[in-house]
Amino acid sequence: MDLQLKGRRILITGASSGIGLATATMLANEGARLALCARDEKRLRAATEGLADTTDVVTASCDVTQRASVERFVDDAVAQLGGLDGVVCNAGRSLMSTLDETSDDEIRAEFDLKIFGALNVVRASRKALASSDAGSIVVVNAILSRQPESRLAVTAAARAALLNLTRSIANDLSAEHIRVNSVLLGLIDTGQWQRRHADSDTDRSFPEWSGEIAADRGIGLGRFGTAEELAFPITTLLSPRSSYITGASLDVGGGVHRYV
Ligand code: NDP
Fold this sequence. Notes:
alpha/beta
């Protein structure tokens, strides 16, 4: 099936590894033209240089928590690509910490990253998306937003706020025919988890170590997801073929969620 993404201009934050990079690769294979950012531009360029053989790629160093930095990146992307049809708010990380272990500054920083990391990008790209005939925003969030865990207490609260805010943004932007949806992740094998494995003092391989975590968390399919398994639903939601889906959230967690 043709997802009608050929030539579409898509901006992705946090594209130097994991889900952002896998989504950029899938979109490039669909013929989309891309604007990609991360804070470490050298790493971003190294990770995405192969994509430039397939399509137009704009890369920039940008910290999504910094409004001026985001505005520069988006303005440059719009100028170089001639507009925008889609945005993926993906940049971020999780804070593995219980409430008692987390300082007030860390709590503020976590809410800053989750809320402004998406809001800055939405605000800066809104005008360009409204000029598209298929404007679409996908916010990468987590099942944690509906199912908190004590060891990720502050991240869970910030994600719940982001999920709620994303629904309000969907309401506000539907008058401009911009669709806005959330993808809620479970546990996905990316840089975040590879770093945790490297930092742990385990002598078990990553598959053994992550398999135990999958069992402990009760993931129905018994394993972590892959970045490519996230790239597909994100790409599908960006597709003009998803033209009647807005204000929705999609769980992609291999059955880890406990709610109906
Ligand atoms: P990775 O660590 O593999 O990738 C994170 C990307 O975001 C990198 O490109 C990183 O580059 C970039 N980034 C981080 N902070 C910022 C920032 N302030 N401004 C701009 N770019 C930033 O992680 P994942 O692919 O796993 O994560 C993607 C998203 O999914 C994140 O928001 C994460 O929290 C979320 N998520 C992931 C889960 C998982 O199990 N993997 C579970 C639930 C949610 P750089 O460091 O150079 O900026």
